[in-house]
Amino acid sequence: MEAQLDPMKDDLPLMANTSYMLVKHYVLDLDVDFKGKVIEGSIVLFLETGSQYRKTSSAGKECCQSQFDETREMRASEPCHIPMINVYTRSSKMEYNDFAISGKEEEATTDENSNHSNNEQASGISSSKDHCDIENHGNKDFLLVLDCCDLSVLKVEEVDVAAVSGIEKFTRPAKLTGVSQKLENLRNQIVHELVTLPADRWKEQLSYFTHCSQAPGCGELLFSTGTWSLEIRKSGIQTPADFPHAIRIWYKTKPEGRSVTWTTDQSGRPCVYTMGSPINNRALFPCQEPPIALSTWQASVRTAAGFVVLMSGENSAEPVQLREGVLSWYYYVSMPMPASTFTIAVGCWQEVKQQSFRETAAIETNTGFLLPSSQTDFRWREEICGHVEYPCRFQNPAARLQAVIPYRVFAPWCLMESCEKYLLQLIPQCLSAAYATLGTHPFSRLDVLIVPSNFSSLGMASPHIIFLSQSVLPGGRHLCGTRLCHEIAHAWFGLAIGARDWTEEWISEGFATFLEDIFWARAQQLSHDEIKGQQELKALLRWRRLRDEVQNSEEELQVLRPKKESTGELSESGASVVKYGLKAEKIFMQVHYLKGYFLLRSLARTIGEVSYLASLRKFVVKFHGQLVLSQDFLSMLLEDIPKQKKSGLTVENIFQTWLDTSGIPKPLLEEGETWKECQLVQQVSGEVTKWIQTNRRIRKSSKKKMKQDEVVFQQLLPDQLVLLLESLLEEKTLCPRILQCLERTYQLREQDAEVSH
Questions:
Q1: Which of 310, 353, 568, 614 would you label with 603, given CA atoms 20 to 30 Å apart?
Q2: Are 256 and 7 spatial neighbours (Cβ–Cβ below 8 Å)?
Q3: Which residues sit opposite 13 in a β-bridge?
Q4: How far is CA 543 from CA 291, 546, 590, 593, in A?
Q5: Residues forming the active site
């Protein structure tokens, strides 16, 4: 049995044995049931043998097998279950196979005190299961291990892809030279040919994935579930090469599953969405969680009429009516991504549209002309991409010139007017500013959704879709614009370029925090002096936040590279852990945002912003579509720095100073005082002095009314207001009249969420 990890203290396990088998494509076919608060259906996995198997198999089958056996000894599995499920097919060809199961199911996932365990009843359908002793009844069978949590797995079967009409083109005799003609090998060869089709045949590939996913099953597979994993095997199959390369898993989520949240939107209508859980998507579908498991996916999702399904997909899906009251939504992606980036939101969302064509035209005119700052770097030059083959926008001449990608905005009905006021106008400005900074947009379109009020952060970015909190809408453009810029930056850093080891969150969040300032300054078209003033004010606010967090958190959580020299290392099977991934307090910490930001800011100051941004663009061109470690970026950057500017910088001393230690880095302590000389900061200091003096006068003469015209206070920017209020909070006592005067002077109730907080 798996070790029981404390979900409040331990690391997050990534159980999938990706070194032996990799999922290349997922096909999800799901129904959303708001009454039962479950998502149910099937997922088809198309697999290829992994790097570890290919490496060891060349040394001989016995060597390979001994490593499988060694891996298996480390994990004593639970009994395999073989549920025999009668499957009925609905009349509509667009629909999926109905299923249900009665009787006792996977004991390991059953909660005796829960009404949503696997001990469920359904009328009219029978099932049975056999308990198979893996140790005595096939201890040499290969196990496919998937990451899985809080799911009711009902059935696992091999898919007969050979039964698909027209599949013969993948079974030409020349392609099977030296390979057994057994049907099992034929099926695996078909899948291999399908997943390795060249990028220019991606539409054909997607079509065959669809047809293959609808093929009949050809034999049930043994499976068992644990706390964190789903283990699948086929009796008598000892190697990944012989294991079925196309499998279908019938399952349903649980209402208490932690990958999605069931709630109501701001208009009181039911909805469900992925809210960025620490356990990622393993409670939404069985998958391979390690970042190295890059895959594509497609999904058909059915729900009641009136609901809108938004998803991380390249296409802007339009619903298809299957029957009265039921709609189906279809999305796909052709760029391989980690399964953790899959995102879905189902609700009664309304699309927010421009009310005036003239307004739209004006926005496009003002933003569409922006070109990358150093367009000669990558506008016309043909680059050879370093990623696995897929239809890459960096190779598409039209995409390379697209400053503003197509976008849509969705929100609950009651927030549509607020979205139209600022958000709709800001998106093209921020997209264009991002393009002017980094060049080609990695993704072809963007949906922005205002998510329910229980969303725990200000924003979250996924491929083709951004979630924003309702908190960014009130109080003007500032917070809405800066947060939008932050999430747009993740298209490059966090999505198109991902961390090979999830403990290096700073690669995503540090870059997005640094770039949000660059994007927002360009979106506002500020002068050089205005940009410098705003950025130094922002740096001071972030420094204060980092100082407070360092003083009030565990030292081990302040390290940006907690695994140090072991960062990026995997076990032989491909399994690993995300260090401190399940620590409750880590979810609310911003140290990887802030220390990462200050490291990048320090490097930019060292080599100059123009040269630094040119290096960022070079890094994007070289590493998009790939996973990186800290040293990949730092090594490339240092190569571009002239010797006279390096100031003794090396990858090793950057690790030691910034990434491998807790606390505030020494260079940052030395820089902290310089921001106080900024004009915007000095203006705040003057206002703070006025308020403190006024507070003292009121306290001394509490019975006398203060004349309203005694003190004139200046109007401040939102970030200045935050600094003012933080400074006043450091005073021991503020009298009630001062608080009332603060409210009147700055209209605090109408300010943005950061000021209100």
A1: 568
A2: no
A3: 577
A4: 31, 5, 11, 11
A5: 487
Sort strands 260-264 and 270-274 into parallel, antiparallel or unpaired. Answer: antiparallel
For the chain, how many helices (H) and strands (E)? 21, 26
Tens of pLDDT, residue by residue over 1-60, are 344 545 445 788 999 999 999 999 999 999 999 999 999 999 999 999 987 666 555 444
What residues contact residue 559 under an 8 Å CB cut-off, 6+ apart? 659, 660, 661, 662
Quick one: which of 461, 511, 478 has its CA closest to 632? 511
Q: Are 358 and 313 in contact (CB under 8 A)?
A: no
| Residues forming a β-bridge with 49 | 21
pLDDT value for 596: 97
CA distances from 689 to 1, 679, 682, 727 (A): 64, 15, 11, 10
Q: Domains along the chain? A: 13-56+139-259+278-305 (2.60.40), 349-353+390-677 (1.10.390.10), 679-701+711-750 (no CATH)
**Two structure tokens written together for 265:** 């939107």
Residue at 497: amino acid letter = I
Q: How many CB atoms lie within 10 A of CB 326?
A: 17
**What one-character DSSP code corresponds to residue 299?**
E
Higher pLDDT, residue 370 or 615: 615
Measured between alpha carbons, how far is 688 from 674 in angstroms, rounded to an integer? Answer: 19
Choose between 559 and 86: higher pLDDT.
559
Q: What is the DSSP letter of 473?
A: S
The pLDDT-based confidence of 124 (bands split at 50, 70, 90) is very low
pTM listed for this prediction: 0.86
DSSP H stretches of helix in 579-642: 591-607, 609-623, 630-640
The SS3 call for residue 110 is: coil
Q: Which residue type occupies 127?
A: S
Would you say residue 729 has pLDDT above 60? Answer: yes
* Residues 556 and 662: beta-carbon distance below 8 Å: yes
- Confidence class of residue 579 from pLDDT cuts 50, 70 and 90? confident
> What is the per-residue pLDDT for 477?
94
Q: What pLDDT was estimated at residue 302?
A: 98
- CA distances to 106, 133, 532 from 223, rounded to whole Å, are 9, 12, 59
Amino acid making up residue 73: E
Taking the C-alpha atoms of residue 502 and residue 340, their distance in angstroms, rounded to an integer, is 11
With cut-offs at 50, 70 and 90, classify the pLDDT of residue 528. Answer: very high
Asked if 78 contacts 1 with a C-beta cutoff of 8 angstroms, the reply is: yes
Report residue 554 as tokens.
């565990």
Longest dimension (CA), the chain: 100
DSSP summary character for residue 715 = P
| Backbone dihedral angles phi then psi of residue 498, each to the nearest 5 degrees | -115, 160
Of residues 503, 522, 512, 498, the one with CA closest to residue 457: 512
Name the strand (E) or helix (H) holding 146. Answer: strand 144-147
**Residue 640 corresponds to which tokens in the numbers above?**
């571009």
On whether the CB atoms of residues 233 and 157 are closer than 8 A, the answer is no
pLDDT digits (tens, 9 = 90+) for 622-637: 999 999 999 999 999 9
User: Is the per-residue pLDDT at 399 higher than 50?
Assistant: yes
Give the DSSP H/E element, type plus range, for residue 42. strand 38-49
Do the strands 217-220 and 97-98 form a parallel or antiparallel pair, or are they unpaired?
A: unpaired
Tell me how crowded residue 486 is: count the other CB atoms within 10 A of its CB: 24
Q: How far is CA 255 from CA 34, 35, 238, in A?
A: 10, 10, 37
